[in-house]
Design brief:
two-stranded antiparallel ribbon, mainly beta
């Protein structure tokens, strides 16, 4: 019932394309290196414990470490902007009574330099921690799988910027606060 995914990588990239929001044009970083690793365990709890109350009980998590730096040139050794070094996620998903589901997820995104701060001269954007929850109902309608759900994103109403750009002034794009979503999915 336990699965663990491990991924390591080393990417040396020449002419990496990035969008420069101050000029509204694509630009190229000469040469970059990304070294990282990811570990993502998941556990189907019902494979070990026979809890009659649940049809599904899954725990999952993940951690990503990435060191992204410029190689050579004026910014040699500097961090690539808008690439966090650390990211973490964790979640639990429960299913019960044959049709209902509930899930809670959390994610942490570490700090990073704002877009266009190749010199790493300005303060990093603050790290982000956000929690989301969803309640769903699934059923079959005429051999089609129908899911109706309600979702709350950013449960704790965390204030953070989803995007920051360094230019003559820092431009920030605040993320929405707590959001309530209703939706449906139909698979046929």
């Amino acid at each position: 019932g336990v699965n663990v995914s491990l991924t390591n990588y080393l990417h040396d990239i020449k002419n990496e394309i990035y969008f420069d929001p101050t000029t509204f044009a694509n630009q190229n970083y000469d040469q970059t290196r990304r070294i990282g690793g990811e570990v993502a365990p998941s556990w189907d709890v019902l494979d070990v414990f026979n809890w009659q109350a649940f049809d599904r009980f899954d725990l999952n998590a993940g951690y990503t470490y990435e060191q992204a730096v410029f190689q050579g040139g004026v910014y040699d050794g500097n961090e690539i902007p808008f690439v966090p070094e650390h990211q973490i996620f964790a979640g639990v998903a429960l299913g019960f009574w044959g049709h209902y589901g509930i899930s809670l997820t959390g994610r942490y995104i570490g700090s990073s330099y704002p877009v266009n701060d190749q010199a790493n001269a300005k303060p990093k954007a603050k790290p982000i921690t956000v929690f989301d929850a969803q309640l769903s109902y699934e059923t079959m309608v005429n051999n089609w799988d129908l899911e109706v759900f309600g979702r709350i994103e950013n449960i704790l109403d965390e204030e953070y910027n989803s995007y920051e750009i360094e230019g003559s002034n820092r431009a920030i794009y605040p993320a929405p606060g707590r959001e309530f979503l209703l939706g449906a999915k139909l698979k046929f």
